[in-house]
Amino acid sequence: MADTQYILPSDIGVSSLDCREAFRLLLPTERLYAHHLSRAAWYGGLAVLLQTSPEAPYIYALLSRLFRAQDPDQLRQHALAEGLTEEEYQAFLVYTAGVYSNMGNYKSFGDTKFVPNLPKEKLERVILGSKAAEQHPEEVGGLWQTCGELMFSLESRLRHLGLGKEGITTYFSGNCTMEDAKLAQDFLDSQNLSAYNTRLFKEIGQDGKPCYEVRLASVLSTEPILDSEMNSKLKSYEFQGSNFRVTRGDYAPILQKVVEHLEKAKAYAATSHQEQMLAQYIESFTHGSIEAHKKGSRFWIQDKAPIVESYIGFIESYRDPFGSRGEFEGFVAMVNKAMSAKFEWLVASAEQLLKELPWPPAFEKDKFLTPDFTSLDVLTFAGSGIPAGINIPNYDDLRQTEGFKNVSLGNVLAVAYATQREKLTFLEEEDKDLYIRWKGPSFDVQVGLHELLGHGSGKLFVQDEKGAFNFDQETVINPETGEQIQSWYRSGETWDSKFSTIASSYEECRAESVGLYLCLNPQVLEIFGFEGADAEDVVYVNWLNMVRAGLLALEFYTPEASSWRQAHMQARFVILRVLLEAGEGLVTVTPTTGSDGRPDAQVHLDRNKIRTVGKPALERFLRRLQVLKSTGDVAGGRALYEGYAAVTDAPPECFLSLRDTVLLRKEARKLIVQPNTRLEGSEVQLLEYEASAAGLIRSFSERFPEDGPELEEILTRLATADARFWKCPSETPSGQA
């Protein structure tokens, strides 16, 4: 069997999202709006398969064919008859549920490959003897032939997502390196093109020069259409001795279905802002224009306190090894009014709280643009995973001048982060009951502060295309050097493009640090309803959770490549290092032996020193993070951040050795079962599923009732068209056009 790092355990936690009451309260038109937005999100989410690994679309198509022909109970009878044990069949169900949840065969949280936890030859017998194979022997056999080896392969380069020798990615062709990614980013910056909706494919021309195709996601391909903004960009360029060609049409048939449902949703929009927002999204996905998506995002920001909230597009850049390309995601949710009232109070206090942050006023935005901040019950979240909270849009220019929105995903928080006492690791016994009682409430506080005042704070110093600065060069002083500002962002440069590979993690670390720092403020705790001893317990558990998370983060570090695979977890490890460095016994991490005789560890946080030792240390660190970010000082930022992110075996913590202990005792991230909506006549029905791997599979089997086979054909056709850019899969499966 495979190393446990690369399998999903058969007893993995599975929870169902509960949004029944919030959906029940929607008016008929609101339900129709939510339904069509959900359909658009689910269709678009299929693009993630093409953004993950060469084999992911084939695996998805194969599994979908299997379970459409036989539901999990029916296939179980066949599997047992073919010689699988109950445990092996359950392992296969968990693998399938994992592929659906992550939209591919790599974990969305950690970017590690996972493989089926059963013998390959047994799974082959089940697949080739299934009803799906009886009905379509060539197609099913061809799919298995194409993806079977890769489904199980743990060749070193295939174990993690990455670029070049570090891993596999389909954001770039297999022959691209980090140097190619940097050159492409420079090219994109020179043409004022965003990387968010692109992929990069490299070939060597007859003259021996590299030729790069920058392919934009769009319904339309390269034929001339009367849309001058994009047409002027679709051509060949010579740049720094290399040839670049900008094309479009990536994921075209998938985005066509997204656009069709956005058009239908527009008919049920509640406001003109929603209509204009959807019109711009349609423009963006049709033509490949990020500028249109920005315009849509402006209308989205202006659409205050909608009953049905949503966002869709190429959004988060965590999984691009270079940190610039956005993964497709779309969500639809309904407002949770009780928790939203607390967030509204936090927003009302934000301008005052921003003054508490440890950097000079010149490093804060000129004007705090009051955002929407709501707690939402998720109906649909399509993509590779579901976060606890979101602060969007990610476009720096909009965030600095137009604002943003914050959302906390209440029904996700309720199930994804619940903890059983017997599964709690690395805590002292006397902390466990307190941790279980206050983890949820303290996480609400942390998410609120992280999203609103973490991601929502701080100014970037920019010189625009006309040479004008958004700060006073004469009077603004760098508090770290005592000198005038020496560096800034030029026109076309963004936080992601300048800080690239560390941008996501650095920003998550800054936001997490703001949350820890401001949760010490009594006003914040009062907003969330905590006073006295309860308030102190919330603070203690919030800090304790961060310290423990810093240790758990070691699961996501790869010693062979000296690299981190998950931005949020790297950020939490950095914070742990900062607090350990503060000394005076504030935090200790001690290797121990567990009651089972195996290696263990314990984290200790001295609650009496959080304010006297922890706060000053965090203050110094936060100020440095913000100053380096504001000034665009990439060299300084990398030196600071990568220094803290280094994992060594230096005593007393010996983190490399502790990593083995963390892997030994890790708990798999839960799988989340989401409902479907179905249009019956003019009414929208909510379809819910049991909290199990089989329930999750059923939810996907019923997700595309009208066009499932067509979608599978589209996915495999698109994957096959680009297969030459990776060594495998290189052949078209039989029966696939």
Automatic annotation (TrEMBL):
Annotated GO biological process: proteolysis
Residues given in the record as Zn(2+) binding sites: H450, H455, E508
Organism domain of life: Eukaryota
Enzyme Commission code: 3.4.14.4
Major localisation: cytoplasm
Cofactor-binding details, from the entry: Binds 1 zinc ion per subunit.
EC class name: hydrolase
InterPro entries, sorted: Dipeptidyl-peptase3 (IPR005317), Peptidase_M49 (IPR039461)
Entry annotation: catalytic residues: E451
One cellular component (GO) term of this entry: cytosol
Single GO term (MF): metalloexopeptidase activity
Entry keywords, A to Z: Acetylation, Aminopeptidase, Cytoplasm, Hydrolase, Metal-binding, Metalloprotease, Protease, Zinc
Localization, UniProt: Cytoplasm
Coiled coil: none
Cofactor: Zn(2+)
Chemical reaction(s) catalysed: Release of an N-terminal dipeptide from a peptide comprising four or more residues, with broad specificity. Also acts on dipeptidyl 2-naphthylamides
PANTHER family (UniProt xref): DIPEPTIDYL PEPTIDASE 3, DIPEPTIDYL PEPTIDASE III-RELATED
Family, per entry: Belongs to the peptidase M49 family.
Protein name: Dipeptidyl peptidase 3
